[in-house]
Amino acid sequence: MDDFYYGEGGLRCEGVALAEISESIGSPTYVYSFAALERAYRELEEAFSGLDHLVCYAVKANGNLSVLRTLASLGAGADIVSGGELYRAMKAGFDPKKVVFAGVGKTEAEIMAALGERILLFNVESASELERLEEIAGRFGKRARVSLRVNPDVDPGTHAHISTGQGESKFGIPIDEALVLAEKIGRYRCVDLIGVHQHIGSQITKIAPHAEAIEKSAGLVEELKRRGFDIRYFNIGGGLGIRYRDEEVPSPKEYIDAIRPSLEATGAKILCEMGRYIAGNAGVLLTRVVYRKKSGAKSFLVADAGMNDLLRPSLYDAHHEVRSVKENGSSSLKADLVGPVCESGDYLARDRELPDAAEGDLLALMGTGAYGFSMASNYNSRPRAAEVMVKGDRWAVIREREHNADLIKGEVVPAFL
Ligand SMILES: *Cc1c(COP(=O)(O)O)cnc(C)c1O
Known about the structure:
This protein is α/β, with parallel strands linked by helices.
């Protein structure tokens, strides 16, 4: 499966040596593999074979236009969570009839933009949002197609920050309340209830919680149909986990096969919203060791990428494999890989056996294609990294490295200062 492997010139992505990319444009740099994106998407497609389905790509995992264009060309739909993501998805060429819009806080402007594009579905998260949709659609003479995002109250067994389907979560509507709400929608003039949606969390590595949640939500689809609602879509959300270190993760086929009877029973078109599974292992972050440092008994490698470039280790204690770009299996060093940001929480790898890299050596943080650049910030006034796409033996910059001027773009010093 590896589109990142050791060969001529060290660690490579498809037909390109990663060292060549950094020699040309510097670091830190995210590098994405076209082949890996395509492979992950096709695996999902194949897993669903025999079912009427649409694989939507969760834009928030990695919203770069070229990543989006890749997936749009393969036929994917898009799962968006903001007006900004709608803008990106439209620029990248997604068919609006394949766009679904989730999120607990859709504003009037965002709803209007999505109605204007005639997107496939709003995943509605509350009674108030429904009322707002009815009002806005009515005002503009539009119809809003909705699915109810239900909260099946299942613990997905993942990190608390990325669990979304438990009783106390801000996301979704409890299943019993969804039935009440559905009856209310029946009386709305501009809102059509045609789907049920769920998404219980991210980086889920066990099938059982998924299966339990899907069974509950599928039950709601059937109950709504019994009550005369024309439920045509069942959106099972995203969240399929990937292997970051030694996790045993189900393949898409194992996952879908396990829930296939529930899906078939609904008779609905199945939507899914995968982000991490599609983009996660399709990207690496290249970073250079700026300094080596010892502090008491502890060793540090200080990199030119920090938490502003890759937040996952600081935010979720996430594990990313660290590889030497120069050579495989070089001697190792027990150390922390830290960034230059002025925060103790700024680390990329903590208490780990790392490549014993010299100052100036290039490292690759593996599995950073999802929730890597998309969570990057300018904290500490650090320009954001460049992004590169590799396809075969070709590569191109798909987002320029930011310059200092980008850091103050839009800032104004008023005359009274
Ligand atoms: C974030 C999100 C996803 C994607 O989750 P992954 O774990 O990246 O697959 C799907 N659906 C919704 C509603 C989301 O918020």
